[in-house]
Here is the input.
Amino acid sequence: MNLDLTWRLLRGGGRKGLLGTWLTLGAVAVSTALLLFAVAANFAFQARADRSAWRNPVETKGAAVAIEAARHDYVRDKEITVIDLAALGADAPAPPGMARFPAPGEVWLSPALKELAGQLPADQLAGRFPSPKGVLGEEALLYPGELVAVVGHKPDAPELTRPRSDDWIVGYSPVKVASLAGEPMDDAEAYQVLALIAGVLMVVPLLVFGGAAARLTVARRDQRLATLRLVGATPGQVVGMTVAEAVIVAFAGAITGTLAYALAAPLLAGIQIGGGGWFVSDLWPSPLVLGGLLVGVPLLVGLSAVVGLRRVVVSPLGVAKRETPPGLRFIRVVALLAVLAVVPLLSRGNAVGPIAVVIGLAFLCVNLVGPWVVGVIGRVTAGRARRPARLLAGRRLVDDPRSAWRTVSGVAMTGFVAGFLCLLSPGALSGFADAGQLQVAVPAGQTATVAEQARTRLKAAGITATVKPAKKLVAVALGTSADAATVDRARTALAGLVPGHTPTTEADDQHFGVQILADVRAGTVVVLSVSFLVAIASAGITAASSILDRRQTYGLLRLAGTPLEVLDKARRAETLIPLTVMGGGAILVGAFCAAPFMIGAVNATGVLTLVLCVGLGFAGVIAAGALSRPLLQSVTTDPAPRPD
Amino acid sequence: MNDVLVGRALAKRFGQTVALGGVDLAVRAGEAVAIMGPSGSGKSTLLHCLAGIMKPDSGEVHLLGQRIDNLRERDRSALRRTRFGFVFQFGQLLPELPAEENVALPLMLGDVPRDRAVRQARDWFGPLGLHGMETRRPGELSGGQAQRVAIARALVSKPAVVFADEPTGALDQTTGQETMRLLVEATKHNGACLIVVTHDPNVAGWCDRTVEVRDGHLLVGGVRA
Ligand SMILES: Nc1ncnc2c1ncn2[C@@H]1O[C@H](COP(=O)(O)OP(=O)(O)OP(=O)(O)O)[C@@H](O)[C@H]1O
Ligand SMILES: [Mg+2]
Here is the structure.
């Protein structure tokens, strides 16, 4: 048996064999692109966390080089981060994105803030930062359009001597720092954990799909391989040939996927999280990670191919005879129930790390239980079927539950995600009652004086307002008819009135919460989209390969007068029945897992997202399946199908 | 006029290849006809034309006096399902269905309720020596057993004609003989005609009559008809 002959026999699959190769290539490309996205997203949040760390000062008890404080200001509905800095001595290091340490009175603006200050009338924004000295570089910014101002002070300036609020959402009180390194902010870390969860949610279906893609090459070949074995090829030759082919195809697929991701990256950079989009460089994984993926993906595909080949190699008759597959063990269900039992024990206050692990585990368990449930669904369907299409669909589900699960797992997993997030995302916050009222915190005992100063400033600026001192603050009512421009003029007029404190509206104070909600929603949409892509691509590929696998029988049945519609209907039922049962089941499991973390009631947006998810999932899977109808047609029109 | 199936001047070309060059063949009621000939001589093409799988380029096919070659594909498909039975070399059974459901499939396609279809299907297992194989799946049957299941499926809907294209081609000599005997007996018992393409003279020996095909023509007494 020489190698060359083996190779030619393998290659001899003709156009249909080639189709399998193309399908594998496409599947690996989609997997790689989405995998890159899932991985890069995590690195992108890491990059943001690193860049924003310097704005989160760490207090030092020892030798200090500077004093640093931070607060938030607002213009229109956007947030401005203002960093106050003062050097202690001559060797204060240059902050990130700046050429040198700012001298007292100097202001550095981010490019977006500089631009906005130029666009708006000076009495609405520019007046708050009187002497802009320079423009901040990217190293100082979270995202390209971020509004940031760095203001230099003398060490004894009131901005850097008086304590501020305890609430880190409002800002950081001045502290002495030994360096400008800082540490990652709490919210940056929270985002990283959320990104990690999203990553797990995306990667698990991806791996299922990738595995299916790998086995596709083998499925196309196993008949031929079994023949080769019968003819006398050694197991080593058979494995070597197939794995080499799978790895080569997968490598081409991985390259294609990387190119596709590179093309998509500028679009993905537009996804708004945390108030803005992304630097494209953030979304581009490091060469090491990229290299790892380009090597790892083909290797995984090769490994998957080996697993798929095991049957052929162990017993050359195994494939040729198509024995009854071994039953799936009930133990899988027990495993899922065990993990589900743990979920409610986690309270909301727990660290997010373990929660991510548990959710990932639950996810894997759903994946393990999936085929078992498909088998049960198949038995029930076949048992109750009256028409041949249903009977065929049911029997096929029993015959190969894993393949059916691969088709529906994407949407079932998406259902899990959707069920989870449907409960998690609280409804839109109600409108803010008093848009025209600014408040600024004032040190005790100075409210009357500050109120008087405010009146003078507002009058000078030509703004009519009622200023009222309260217990620890001064409230400025601009009237209910005040528009955004008036509010910004008032903000500008009152800038620096109380050093280190910003006059804010109620909406400004809610900005962080609103932002988090928007981000959770954006994240949901992203994860859902990815899951859909996987589900749909997988449905299309599974449908095509299942037709190719049974092309001889289909062809002969059609010769014997079986209407094509029956076969097509069976194929559709084969996907739709488990999809309906398992999609619904997954949503319930997802909702169950979300229950312990639930904030507030189920809301319309969440339910709408869910309905949309289910609708799109079904439509997409049906459409992807329908795409292979011409294939069924062409495979069965050959009047004398010959086993090849 | 007791010809059940009649083919007149059937001609079929594939590009430059003349697969059939004007063949006449009539099959009488209850008759079993073997079609023999070298590979590529046009046996399968003849069978496909007679069975309404292919439209001949010219010529006519009549079933019980009714012309069938000019029907639309949909009608020919229904005709094949209801009036004809088929046995192929192998691979015609759906691997995921148990044997009895494979046999019941044509009945269910004809709107027979499932219970009744399966019951009727089971009735074929005993006579064909398949006792106890009802719930086995094709992968768990031997080649000969699988062919017998296929024979049951071809006969279950009481067809007028059974077409078999090398039904024993994938079986060993003894099993082939036995399968052929069952095919002929069961078909005759059922009152149907049988048209079987084969390379094996022993197999042909089970039939009432043998026709030879050479280069798309029938040989009668060693000469082209
Ligand atoms: N779909 C087709 N396209 C082109 N040529 C065809 C097609 N089907 C058959 N032929 C040609 O028509 C001729 C007769 O083919 P046919 O299949 O009827 O032969 P056969 O007698 O059944 O051969 P075998 O015993 O090998 O099955 C052959 O030359 C074959 O190459
Ligand atoms: Mg032939």
